[in-house]
Structure formats: C-alpha cells, structure tokens
Specification:
heterodimer; A: 162 residues; alpha+beta; 2 helices; B: 283 residues; mainly alpha
Chain lengths: 162, 283
Amino acid sequence: MKQNQETIVLLSEMAISDNPKDILTIPKLGACLGISVYDPIKKIGGVIHCLLPQKIKIHVPMKFFNPCLFVETGLNHLLKCLKEEGCKNENLIVQVAGGAKLINEDEIFNLGYRNFISFRKVMWENKLLIHQKDIGSNKVRKLSLNIENGQVTTNLKGALEI
Amino acid sequence: MNQNIERKIQNASSLPPVLNQFYSLIQSKYIDYKKIESLMKSYPRLLNEMINIGKATCYGTPHHIKNIEGLVNLLGKDIVNQTLLISCMKPILSSKLSYYHFEENQLWQHCICSALLSQQLSLMANFHIEPFQAFLGGFLADIGKIILDEELKEHKSSIEKKLDKNDCLFDELEEETLGINHAQISATLAENWGLDSALSQAIKYHHNPEEAENNYELATIIHIASNLSIIRGNGIGKEGLHYKLCDHAVKKVGLDINDIEKTFAETYPIINEALLSTGENHD
C-alpha cells in the first residue's frame, strides 16, 4: 500500500516535487498566502508560503534572504523553477489560500488582502488564471498539495477541497 | 471563575525552580560561572537546548560553545536568560491543546514568536522598555490558554456558533463563557510566580492595552506582537483570527505599515531558526 510522506513548508520556503507519494503542506496560514502550482501533464507541483506582498529593503544577512518571503518574488521564483523542470505555462494549475485578517484589520494594514493583490498582479504578468481560491475572512487554513493527483485541500481537517 | 480553573491556577503556582536559581546567579555583577555550571549539571538536557537555541537566535554562531560561560560571553546575558526561559518552559507549554487546536509544541512556538516580535518592537518603539521585559511579556501572554483548554471544550458547540459571526472577539467570548479570559489567567500566573506586577498588568491587558492603568507601553507592545504572531500564522488555533489589532496602539508606538512589514521581514530568520532549533516546526 502506498504511504504518503508529508513535507512541511515553513514560512518563506518553497517545496517542489515530482514524487507521487509527496504531500506538500503548510499547516497554518494566517494572513500569509499559500500558493500551489501544479502541472497535471508532468505531474510536478510546488508550494510556497509567503508573508509579505512585495520585496522591501531589510537588514538581514544575505544568506538568510529568501525570495519566497514575498509573494511577488516568491511566485516568480516558483514559476521559474517549474519551467526549468519542463512545465509549460498553459498547463499550470494555480490555487491559492490564506490572506485572512484580524477582526478590524481593514482599517490598519490589511496584509492578507495586499498579499492577494500582489498575487493577482504576478498572475496577470505571467498570463496565468487563478484556478481556485480560498481567501480572506478570519479563518485559519491548512494548505496541502497532493503530488499524485494535484488535489489541493485548504481545510484544517483536510476534508474540504477548494 | 469556576472552581476547576481556580484549582488549575493553584496547581501551577510556581515557576520551574532552576529558573529562579539561575536568574539570581546571572543577575549579580560578577557572575560565578562555577556555581552556574554546578547548577546546570543537574539539568543536562536544558543546557544542550539552551546552547542550540542560543546559537540559532544569534544567526548560527560558531559551534564551539560548550558551556554557560561561553554562551554568556558570546551571546550576552539577555539572550542566555531568554534561552533558559524558553527551555525551562518547554515541558509546561509543549502539550497538545485540543480545543485551541494546537498540536504538540505549537503553543510553545507561538510564545517564542510573540516574545521575539515583542522584543524587536520594544527596540523600535519610542518607549523605555527593557528588551528582556518585552520578551518575557510576549512569551507569557498566552500561557493562560493551557488552563482554559479543557474548560472551553465543554462549550464547544455554543462557541463555534458565535465564532461564525465575524465580529466576535475570542478573548471576549472566553470571558462571556467562563467568566475569565486567557490574558487574565496568564497575568495571575505571572503574579503567582513572583514576577513584576507591572509586567503582569501588561500581560492582563494585552488584548485591550487602552485599559491598562499602568505599564500601558508594555501592554501595547505585547498586544501588537501577539497579533503579529497570529497574522504570521503561529498563534492561531481553532479560533482563527478572531482578535483585533488596536489602531490606537499601533499609532501610539509610532509604527506604520512599512515598519510592521520590516519587523516581519527582519525577524523571520531569527524566528524560523529558533523554531527549528526547538524541534518540529508547525508554523
């Protein structure tokens, strides 16, 4: 019997796999975006876990800089890596979850919404369509991508398919 | 407050003794490392963990730190204090909380994340707050969830109905259901453990800092840090993001959106490293 292996994708990380046993998971998404990109022809997929919309100037040692902290640089990076693996733009299925907000966050800095706007901008620039989304509100989400069939779930219990 | 909660608070009436002994030794002007070494000999797991966390929180320092003296000389007293606190509290904070939907270690990791964010904010804000006080406040602010977890389970269905209404705040819901919220319990525990009363006041009001009679500044810092940890995805359980970020608090600290984003971006390597060094990461 096939045994799945779960790879946890931490904040600012990316995971790519072509192993059908792999499930790429972000266990808890708040205002962060979890983005899943899957090619059903080549059966390769990747997940990124981004916190901020766009790259900003920061003072951290270069070795700790990770493009996947930001939606804009992270999604472009994931797409580039998948294309290097032979994936074609027209086959890619992009699904996104997260972008939640605190009760009154609209009035303050609304990070989740700005993350989603940045995501849409990169999608438009790359001529990609959003296949499914589970975005906003006050709920916590878990995103999992099953490499075998490209199925994405975003419910904490893993039962709800988007 | 019901009797079960009162009993649980009483049962958690003291900090791990090693913490108090260590703090009294390390606060003196001339640190007696021999005494510290002999104290730590009884806690080898703790020493190893402290060294690992210490290395991680300092961007991976050289691997030759083998004892407390090396740790203090390289990282400074504050980081050593922090790492001891983190290590000592692990057994208390790492249990699974089924109502809040925290897997093993998740509450502990949220506490670390809030503490590091709180410390970073204290350095950025125009307040005179000791960074270690901010760290301690951020670390202990949600410890009361351990006490409330079992009690909330009994009211699961009524709470979930109310949570469906988007404008419902979870700390208010705890209070409405059980007569007390997790912040008030965290403050009571801090008080029982002999920590500064100004610190426990700040913890008590970390969801509504405008109500803090004293130590408003620290309450504000902890408030923002705790919410940032939730936004980041660390501190959220079943209640989701049913908390509010007080606009007034953000303005009072003098931070804008760019500062908050910068705080996130500059702390993420430290937080990720600290969480990884503490075991499996469920961030």
